[in-house]
Write a structure and sequence with these properties.
alpha/beta; Enolase-like, domain 1; TIM Barrel; 4-stranded antiparallel β-sheet
Length: about 350
């Protein structure tokens, strides 16, 4: 029996209120829900992962996540944590409709193995950086006072890049972007905007909004996932015609998806999330994206620091990303440090390791 054999797999539901309503073209919520999973090895080493929930995969509920984990416990017990990549591949084959559940399990097994070997997370990814800075999401809203309060709070923390959730409704989106720009200019902040469509646009509406913000000279640097994830024809066309870089998100969950997107010419970049793709697939997507000349974004779901910190470690360790979108913890009340990651204003800094690291 090896010291890195899996001994136990435990889980707990986490429900946390959000500081502001999180609204996109897919839905709205006032609390985040996820399942935290702990994997403990024979030598006592343990690791935590987070199985997020999302509007993108409405069937992947807390109850169904828990059911998958319960079903997999007997299969995972006794396996070597060092084989986390192969374990994750098997899990994805058995549960193709539950990518975020598998991602949380893989992250927990990977972390337990890192503890067993005494390896730091950012070091395992390459240890390239000690600090990264993230954007902050502006949820879709028509309430100007709510918008103003959220932006002012973010500005006080030092955020300079704002990702605006847009809806696909022409008048509402133009009004929202104008309001965001007006509030930031009144604060005398040098800022950059990003647009996130969350699959809410038609091809015509996407190109019209991209043309509009370009003509208005708003400092917009990209348009994330405007069309439905499987609208290959539309994505191919807007990639050719959009004045803004098109970044894929929901279209790409796996390396296979990334290969398809590259072959079909879908998008100028890809948002890579450990929450949806886990450790192994995220690295494979990153490698393929770089080889294909795509721009890379490090992203997240609505997660606690348990899940988010894996994405932060990947972004810091690899230094491979053009855009950092790792802001979910700022929607929650949180600790200032989780493991080796400290929260500092609009960024994260690598610190000396702290023991513990359950839910952040």
């Amino acid at each position: 029996m090896a010291t890195d054999d899996i001994k136990t797999v435990r889980m707990a539901e986490v429900v946390r209120p959000l500081k502001t309503t999180f609204a996109t073209s897919l839905g709205r919520k006032d609390a985040m829900r996820s399942v935290i999973v702990e994997v403990r090895l024979m030598d006592g080493s343990s690791g935590f992962g987070e199985c997020a929930t999302s509007f993108v995969l409405p069937h992947e509920t807390v109850d169904r996540i828990r059911a998958v984990i319960r079903a997999e416990r007997p299969h995972l017990t006794g396996k070597r944590a060092a084989d986390f990549s192969a374990i994750a591949a098997e899990l994805r084959e058995r549960h193709p409709a539950f990518p975020m559940t598998v991602s949380g399990l893989e992250t927990a097994i990977w972390r337990a193995w890192l503890r067993n070997t005494g390896t730091g997370e950012t070091d395992w990814f390459g240890g390239a950086l000690r600090r990264v800075e993230t954007d902050i999401t502006i949820p879709y809203t028509t309430d100007v006072m709510v918008l103003k309060g959220w932006i002012e709070q973010a500005a006080r923390k030092g955020f300079a890049v704002y990702k605006v959730k847009v809806s696909g409704r022409k008048a509402d989106d133009r009004r929202l972007i104008a309001s965001v720009a007006s509030i930031l200019e009144a604060l005398d902040i040098r800022y950059t905007l990003r647009l996130d469509g969350n699959q809410g646009f038609t091809k015509t509406a996407c190109l019209a909004l991209a043309d509009h913000v370009t003509k208005k000279k708003y400092p917009v640097e990209l348009f994330e996932q405007p069309l439905k994830k499987d609208d290959r024809r539309g994505l191919r066309e807007i990639t050719k015609r959009s004045p803004l870089p098109v970044i894929l998100d929901e279209t790409v969950f796996s390396a296979e998806d990334m290969e398809m997107a590259l072959n079909d010419g879908l998008g100028h970049g890809v948002n890579i999330k450990t929450a949806k793709s886990g450790i192994t697939e995220s690295l494979s997507i990153m490698k393929l994206g770089k080889q294909g000349g795509l721009r890379l974004m490090a992203g997240c779901m609505t997660e606690t620091m348990t899940g988010l910190s894996a994405g932060i470690a990947m972004a810091m360790g690899t230094a491979a990303f053009d855009y950092i979108d790792l802001d979910s913890v700022h929607f929650l009340n949180h600790r200032k440090q989780y493991g080796e990651i400290a929260v500092e204003g609009a960024g994260y800094r690598r610190q000396e390791m702290e023991d513990g690291g359950k839910v952040g």
